[in-house]
Structures are given as C-alpha cells and as structure tokens.
Amino acid sequence: MSEASRRIFGQALAVLFALMLGTVVIIIVGESPVRVFATLFEGAFGSPERIAGTLLQTTPILVCGVAACISFRGGLFNIGVEGQLFMGGFAAVLVGIYIPLPPLFHVLLGIAVAMAAGMAWIAIPAFFRARYNANEVVSTILSNYVAVLLTSYFTIFIFKRPGGWSETSQILPSAYLPEIFSFSRLNWGLVVGLVLAVGVHLYFRHTPRGYAVTIMGQNVKFAEYGGVDIRRHIMMVLLASGAVGGLAGGIEALGVHHRFMEGFAPGFGFDGVIAALLANGHPIGTIGTALFFGALRSGSLLLEVDTNASREIITVIQALIILSVSAEFIMRRRGDSMAAERRWKF
Amino acid sequence: MCGFVCGSGAGVGYAVELKGVTKRFGTFVANDRIDLAVRPGEIHAIIGENGAGKTTLMNILFGLLQPDEGEIIIDGRPMVVANPRVAIGAGLGMVHQHFKLVPSLTVAENVFLGMEIRSGVFIDHRAQIQETERLSRAFGLKVDATERVGLLSVGIEQRIEILKVLARGARIIILDEPTAVLTPQESRELFQTLRGFVSQGMTVIFITHHLEEVMAVSDTVTVLRHGKKVDTRPTAELTKNELVQMMVGRSISFDRRRRETVTGDTVLSVRDLWCRDDRGLPALRGVSFAVRAGEVVGIAGVAGNGQTELAEVLSGLRRASHGSFRIGARDLTGASPRMIRSAGVAHVPGDRLVRGVDRQSTIAANILMGSQNTPPWERRGLIDWPLVRDRSRKLMERFDVRAPGPDTLVKSLSGGNMQKVVLAREFSHDAPCLLVDQPTRGVDIGATESIHDEIMRQRADGRAILLISVQLDELIALADRILVMFSGEIMGDLPGDDVSEESLGLLMAGVRTEPEEAAVA
Amino acid sequence: MEILERLFNVALIVATIRTTAPILLVALGGSFTTKAGIFNIGLEGQMLVGAFFAVIGSVFTGSAWLGVLCGVTAAVVFALVFVVLVVTFRANEVVVGLALNILAGGMTISLMKAIFGTRGSIVGQGIVGLPPVRLPGASQLGSFGQLFSGYTPMVYVAFAMVPILIVFYQRTRLGLHIRVVGEKPEAAEAQGLSITRIRYIASLLCGVLAGLAGAHLSLGYITMFTENMSSGRGFMAVAVLIFSNGDPLKVLAGCLLFGFSDALALRLQTFGFPSYLVLTVPYLVALTALFALAYRSRPRIITETMDSMKRLLRTPARPPDTTRTGDR
Q1: Is C37 on the interface with A (CB under 8 A)?
Q2: Which of A284, B21, B171, B410 could potentially form a cystine with B91 if both were Cys, beta carbons 3.0 to 4.6 Å apart?
Q3: Confidence category of residue A244, pLDDT binned at 50, 70, 90
Q4: B325 φ, ψ to 5°?
Q5: Residues of chain A numbered 137-196 and touching chain C (CB < 8 Å)
Q6: How far apart are CA A234 and CA A212, in angstroms?
Q7: Is the complex ipTM higher than 0.90?
Q8: What was the pLDDT predicted at C318?
Q9: Strand pairing partners for B466?
Q10: Each residue's pLDDT tens digit, B424-451
Q11: B56 to chain C: which residues are within 8 Å by CB?
Q12: Mutation target among B46, B96, B100 for the C interface, most CBs of C within 10 A
C-alpha cells in the first residue's frame, strides 16, 4: 500500500472507531443508534430539498475549512476563523444596505469588503506572531469572542432594523448572492467554495510562493536557510487565511441570511477548522470532510425534530472523530514542523 | 548516605579495563577492538581528533551505549553495564560535555536531583545544602550551595556536575572534554581538583583534544584515531610532537590535488568579524581573511571553535556583533539569507538534517529551494515542475544520488545521499562564492572522492570556495591555504602545498607558535 | 466624582475576588501542565465538564459536595484523555485540546437535553449550591468584613492554592520533578526520572483544579448551568499561563487583572454601559497582555564595543559546545 493510502486507511479506521464511541454516547442519551443514524442520513440526503440544505450547510464549512488549510499549510494555527467570518458577514451586510450599486457590482463589492474585514481582523494577531512570536492560537481564539460581542453590539445598538429585535435591516436585492435552485437558498457561494478549494490547492502546488509557504510549514529552518523571508510569509499566510474567513461570512450574509443578526452563522468557523484538521490540511480533502460535516449538521436538524437527541450529538461525534484520528497522525509532533515547536513555553 | 572509599590504593589489577570493545553504527565503525587499561589512582587521558571514537567509548563504559563486542571489567569484576544506573552502582561517575543542570534550581537541588533528601513529605533543603557544602569542602570544589544555577558561570556549573557525581559515590570519574568551556585559570583549578581526587584514592579518566592539558596533568595517555587505539603510554615519556604524530598520524588517504595557480580577484573578504553563540558567549573573536576566485581556503579546527558560527554569519543566518564581510564590493553584513544568496553565495550547511534539507519533501522539491523565483525554474508565475524534475534527474546522475527518482522523499535517503542532494543543489547555482561546511561527513569513500572532484571542478570554474572541515586530510588534499580556528580566532594561515598534519594539529589544539601568547595551563 | 466613588468601592474588590476565583483555580491547574512542559489548551473544556457534572451530581445526590466530586471526576477524565493522547500517542497538543473543548461543549448540551429535557440552561431542578462560608469575627470589621467572609468555599480554596502551590513547587519532590521535566527534560532523563509518569500526574492534578473551578461556576454564586458557561475563561487562563510560565504568584497577578476587568465590566453594565461592549474588556485585556509580553521577550541583539572586545581578547574565550557538529 502506498504511504498515502495507508494513511487514509488508518484514518478511516479511526473514524469508524469514533463512530462506535458515538454509538455508545447515543445509547447513553437514551436513543437508538440505528434511529439516530438513519434520521441523520435522511435529514441530509432524503430529498432534493434536503440535499440542497446539506450543501447549504457545507458551503460555509468548506470556505472556513479552506481558510484553516491555508494557515496550516504555513505551519500556523488560525483558530479565529469564526471571528473573521462574523466580521466579514457584518461588513458585507453594511455594504449591502448602505452602498447601492448595480447588482453584480454590489455583490462583488460586498464580497471584497467581507474579505478585507476578515483580513483586518486577523491583522494584529498576525503581526505579533510574525514579528514577536506571540502565540496565534490563543490570540485568535480570544479575538473570536471579541468579534461576536462587537458585531452583536453594532447590530443591536446601531444598525438595528426598526421594529426588529436583534438584527439589521435587509440588504438590498442588488446585493443578493444569487440562488442556484428555486427551492432552496443554496447559492453560488458553493461554487465559489469549490473553486477556492481547488484554486488554493493548485496555488500551493504550482506557484513559487505556495512552495515557499509549504516548505516553511514543514521545516522553517530550512526555508529560512533557503532564503524565504519568514516574517513576511507568516503575515501573508495569516492575512490570506483571515480574508477567506471573511469571505465565508460574506457568502453567508449575501447568499443566505441577507441580513446580520445575533447568532449569525454560529459554529461554522470551528467546524471548518476541524474539517481542515480531519483532511490533514489538504484543501481538496477538505471538500470531502466539509461535506461530511455539512451532512451531519443538516441531518441533525431533523434529529432535533424527530428524536429526543439534540443537535449537539453531532458535535460530540465530530469531536470524537478528531480525537481518535489525532492519535493516528493529525499533524503529529514532527521534529521540524513549526506547529510542533515549543514556542509557547518561555 | 553515600560512602566514599578512600585510599583503595594503586595495587593489584586495574580500576577499569576494556577488552576488544567494538561499536558500529550501521557500516561506520566508531570503536574498533579497543583495549583500555586504567590503573587505580591514576589520571588517564584519552586523546584523539574528531570522530576518533573517544566519547563513544566512554558512553559504552558508562552504560549509555551497548558495545557490539568486547568486555568491560571494573575493579576486576566483568560487568554488563546496561544503563547508567548500573555504572553508578559500580562506582563510576560521568561528567558530560553538555551539562544537564536545571537553571532555576539551586546548586544543592541540582546535586540531589533524583535522590532528594526528605523529611516527611517535604524536601529537606537544609540537609541538602549542608551535604553539598560538605562535599564541596572535602574535594575543594568551591560552590555556593544556595545559588541558582542559571546565574552561575560555566566553570562553576562544571563543579556542580562533578559534585553530582561525587554525591552518588563515584570513585572512578570520567570527564568528557572538561576544559572545553573553561578559562585557563579555571582549567588550572580543575586540574588541582583532579589531583586531589587521586590523592584520595579515586581514579580519573578524561577525554580531550587539548595537548597542553594532557601534558600538564595526566599520568597515562591513550591515543585513539579513526576508532582504533594507537597506543597507551605514560605521559612523562612523550613529547608534544610525538603525541600529535600519534593523534593525527600518517592518515592521509587523499593525495594532494594538482591544480593551477590562483590568479583571481578577491571575492569574499572578511574583516574583524565577531559574533556570539546562542548562549551569548563569543564564538568569533576578530576573524579576518579573504578568498579569491578560483581559490579553496580551508578552515581547520576541532568542531565547536567557531566554524559553524562563521558559516552562519556569512550566510545570513546569524548576526555578527562586530565587523563586516563583503562579496566583491558589496557589503553584506547583516543581510538576509535571500540577499546573500542573490549576491552569489551558496551554502552547504554543517547540520544538513536541520538546515540542509526538508525530509518531508521530494528530492525535486529540495533541489528547487533557493531557485523558486528565478527563471527558468519559474515561468509566468508558475513553477515548471517538469523542468525541476528533469534538472533534478540530471543532478542526481552527476552527483550519484542513489534513489529511484526525483520524486523520492528525502527522508528515505541515507545520510550520504542526503548530503549529495544538498551538494547537488548548492553547486548547481553557479554561485561565485561557495561556503562548504563538512561536505563529506557521513559519506562513503567513493562518494567522497567524487565530491572532491566536484569541488576541484568548481575551483577550476573560478569559484571562491571556503571549505570548513574537521578532516585534515581532506583540507590538505584540496585547499590552497588552510586557516586554523581555535576559540573563535584564527591561529594560523598555512599554505596548502607545504603543511604537515603535525603543525596543523598543534594549532588546532590551541598551541600558538608565538611565545608571548599564554599557553593553556 | 461620585460615579467613581460608586464604581470603585469595597464591593468592587469583593466582586473582583469572586470573579478571579474560577480563573485562578483553572490557571493554577494549568500551571501543573505548563511547568511540566505541555501546552494544554483544553482547560476550557475541563472547566465546562466540571461545571456540568457538578450540577448533575448535586441534583442526583442532593449534596453540593458530592456534586463537586462529580465535577472534579469528569474534569479528571478529560485530563486523562488529553494526556494519554498527547504523551503516549504523541498527538498534537493543540488539536487534542481543541477537540476536547468541542467535545465538552457538545457533550454537555446533549446530556442536558437528554437528562433535563431542556436546552439553554438548567436552573432549580434541585441543584444544591455551595453554602457561603462565614468567618467568625468578620462582622467586627464592619463593611470590610465582606472582604474576608461570605464567599463560597471555592473562593477560599482558590486563593489558598497559591501559597500551597508555591510550597509544592519549591519544597516537595513531585513539584521539583515537574519543574525539571518542563524546564530541562534531559536533566530529568539523565537522573532516571520518568518524564511520562510525571506528565501524567501533572495532567491529572490539572484536571482536579479545573474541575473545582467548574464546580465553582455552577454551584458557587449562581446555582445553574448554562450552555458554554465557561465563556472563554479557560482561554484567558491559557494566556495567563503563557506569560507567567506557571509561576503561582505571577498567575495570581494575571488572574487578578482579568478578574478585575471582569468585575469592572459587570459593574459598568449596571451603570448603563452596553453589556456587549463591556464584556469585551476582559478579552481585550488578555490580548493586550499577550502582545505586550511577546514584545518584551524579544531577543536582544548584542553588539561588541571596544571594551567588550578588549576584555574578550585578553582571556582566551571559552569555546561553545564542542560537539555541535558531532564528535561521537
């Protein structure tokens, strides 16, 4: 068996193991595992509408996953995708409401601003990581909390829709990201996500900068020796990662919700990060894992309705999968990878 | 607590005997049927160059390594020393080269690490301090038992390591390159201490490459070379030159290469370069030299005398604390690795596993490093992988890299082949200046010959080559001039044509020929 | 002026002490793993399960203290999973820590729905909270009495842990060994100490304190459990640990800073400042501290002066480690 297929086989075993553990959890919660899994499957794929719903959930997970992949590739951990998504979504909504433009331009501007917002949000943690080696795991996680709080504040106190509770006005129709089918809110964001995943993959494989980042993520000392400007590349990687996180938010805002509200797209950022982890940082693999998580999410909506189990059962299953796969090899502590350095111990 | 057997006296039998000890690492024979006999109550020095096998031998004695063949006999009893604990139980103690002290702990805490004196649940610090002070007085090793180790000088750290060994009841003490980190004054104090040990009936073995010390303090000296024992003689019977002769010997395996005279302009010029190592200690102290186009300048010296730092400063991986260097007319002091590379410097690093390759990548990806932004490797914004692979294939052939193809992962290559990949990459950059650090370490003899061919070819093409190597025969074969580094300074500049290994050996061992320099102890 | 008086008074100090307690407990717990050389980002999850299972235990046994025991057990189990995966299976610490946090979040909500049938929060339901401790003699201090008396037990435990841990690290064998394993593992190995065993113990101790912290959250002042109750305190503790390196006194200082900003934030809310903005304060303080300390610990560049060069040339310098390039 080749190295790659042996790895995938090992991962598959770990996933199976996690599902078994998940079965135990389901039993503890007092439900029948068969019923739960069947409901999940039906909820995810049971009808064309449901399939579209799955793809709808997959889109932000995929885009966030690609954002995480970008950072992992450089040996960095951007766990702040959630916050970047929120900022991006909020910025896109503001553009959608207050800057009227002809339809195509409006959408493009909204998307661009969303990406800029995500980039701006990660800029300070990125700077301190690049220049002063400040741990980006903690700084990006903490900034998530700030992002959620800030956007909520602005939504409720400044941009609130008159007569509404905790949401903004609707964006103008010219800012809508068009739907693909009539029966669902599934929009072209999915295509953007797929193209992005493939594009990022190709970028890392075929461009000089992508090559430099890849090597930096695998052996930073070698990259430095070879002439790669480590600080600049760290900045680039994290800013790009933040921009894509913002993009995810923009897609959600302009394609799905058409406004911003408290509790906007919760959890997609984290789901994206773990989808990327499960795919070991590979953008194309992330398409698969994001679809898997999207199906779980979609199915869990039916789960909540039809059974006694709560939606969060799938979170448990996701976490169990990550745990059992991490024992296998997810970004194992390799001697020369940046992620493994003890830079957080002073 | 721990008992000290005083005055066991030099009587019948040896304190330590090694018979026919052999140790192999793969195909490399580190120790080749070595016999060693150390009498009780003597100071026995083991001397040899880099790679002679000294540390390996002592690691075997102390249980850190297991011999492939041979016997170990301690105090007349044959033993299998399976781990350091067995060795300690047999009365051995080893003071390593790299101290294993915990900076935030006090002296006493370090001495008693792993065998803390307790009163109830708590550590009895006072008892530990008292006992440490007692040992300190008994053996003349002045330390402040309450001081934190992180604040202490290296010389005192060594005393603590010795105290650790004594606290565990050692009667046979092994020291690995003890004076490598000491000032002359501290070395003198150490020798006094060692003589004190011996007068109390203990036995001392120490490993060194410093001739002066061997002459000054040892009773007997064993010379190792290339894994074999050359001889064991009472020190009093030998002169320095005889010792060097034995150390360095008629080991020339390479003939001096025929060459054209050097006629080129100066490419690399280094002026009064100073730098610090990772601990903040000075590693380079005022180094100046120049390398001309078409010239090979060799840097000789025992590893750890500043050569690595020199290569790091010249390649931009380390900052100089003073001084400058230029390539041609361009001052590159403080420049980044990228700028230095684009100024025309290629670097074969000494620690190839860390700096020289990325083991997770393919050979082709490794070869690409440094060229990924220059055409034709890069074309219209994309890497031309077919071209990269093709060039890699050709380089693999030219440098005889034994692997299935350019898509082989580097981590599956042998050390020698990895080194060839590094050379293949760096030598193919057409750089006017080459920094080459230990090019043939871990490489077999046939490949070494071809690497030497390649170096001479680069020389003939007019490149300026700085060749850092711990192997004298390699330098004598290839270099036009040889500079000897010791303690971060250049001790001498000898012509490659007319140099003896003895004269190099003396300089490498810190013996200056100028009379006004104070020789070590 | 009056506003300032109303803002900064004894009650604020009391509030600070109360809000500092959980962060302090979990950070001190994290100090074990930090000092042992492990980056444990799973503190948040350990605290959360501690809080949840403390409530469960309290409801099902009717006793607050048994609830605390339950909570601690749950946190210890999480800590055990963490250390097995990270130390024995050599998995990536960040990944495992994050996954455990996610697991904690999902698990607590799922079980909450399964057992109590509700989402959001568990209130009432027979939760027995921890009783406040009244110190004798406190009433004689007048309004200052509340500075010392009337807190729930975990607060006292939290602050008592500071001197206890100082003694632990300085004067017990285990504490010393934990420090050695984190600071210089080679020294530990050379003396025959088992790095694995010590890291396991450190992780379990961490779980105990994190569990206590969680129990304080749900059985302390507010006797309830809400979704994601820990709301980032575990991460703030991680931030404290990064720049204190696990030193108990520095941890105390850092936690007091965050506790204060937390308490201040709550106070400001009662003054009409919007809660969302005010709630960002602790996180912003943590971020600022993180960045400031990273800046402060940047490597210094040494430049030789005429004096230093003269001095160094007079005595032959000590060459650095002689086997950098491999004497065997």
Answers
A1: yes
A2: B171
A3: very high
A4: -150, 150
A5: 137-139, 141-143, 145-146, 149-150, 152-153, 156-157
A6: 11
A7: no
A8: 46
A9: B297, B435
A10: 999 988 899 999 999 988 777 777 888 8
A11: 328
A12: B100
- Give per-residue pLDDT as tens, A16-70: 888 888 888 888 877 888 888 888 888 888 888 888 889 999 999 999 999 999 9
Quick check: A345 contacting C, CB < 8 Å?
Answer: yes
| Total CB pairs under 8 A between chain B and C | 149
CATH of A48-295, one of 1.20.1510, 2.40.10, 1.10.3470, 1.10.287: 1.10.3470
Q: Which residue has the higher pLDDT, B469 or A180?
A: B469
Whether this model's pTM surpasses 0.90: no
Tokens of B337: 């690795």
Q: What is the tens place of the pLDDT at every residue in A262-274?
A: 888 888 998 999 8
Alpha-carbon span C225 to C231, nearest angstrom: 12
**Distance from C-alpha of B509 to C-alpha of A309, rounded to nearest angstrom:** 77
A positions 324-343 inside 8 Å of C (CB): 326-327, 330-333, 339-340, 342
**Residue B333: C-alpha distances to residues B275, B325, C312 (Å):** 12, 6, 22
Alpha helix segments (H runs only) across chain A: 3-29, 33-45, 48-73, 81-98, 103-132, 136-153, 189-206, 208-218, 220-225, 230-251, 268-278, 283-306, 313-328
Residue A80 structure tokens: 């702040």
Q: Which domains does chain B have, with CATH numbers?
A: 16-248 (3.40.50.300), 252-344+431-521 (3.40.50.300), 352-429 (no CATH)
How many other CB atoms are there within 10 angstroms of residue B9's CB atom?
Answer: 9
pLDDT band for C154, please (50, 70, 90 cuts): confident
Instruction: Tell me which residue has tokens 């093409």.
Output: B461
**Partners of B93 in the beta sheet?**
B173
Residue whose C-alpha is closest to residue C103's, from A23, A316, A272, A269: A316
DSSP secondary structure letter of residue B498 = G
Class of domain C2-131+148-299: mainly alpha
Residues A218, B361: C-beta atoms closer than 8 Å? yes
Cβ contact, residue pair C320, B113, below 8 Å: no
Cβ pair B360, B411 in contact under 8 A:
yes
Q: Where do we find the tokens 């010792």?
A: B243
Residues of A in contact with B315 (CB under 8 A): 225
d(CA B287, CA B306) in angstroms, rounded, equals 10
What's the rounded mean pLDDT across residues B488-514?
81
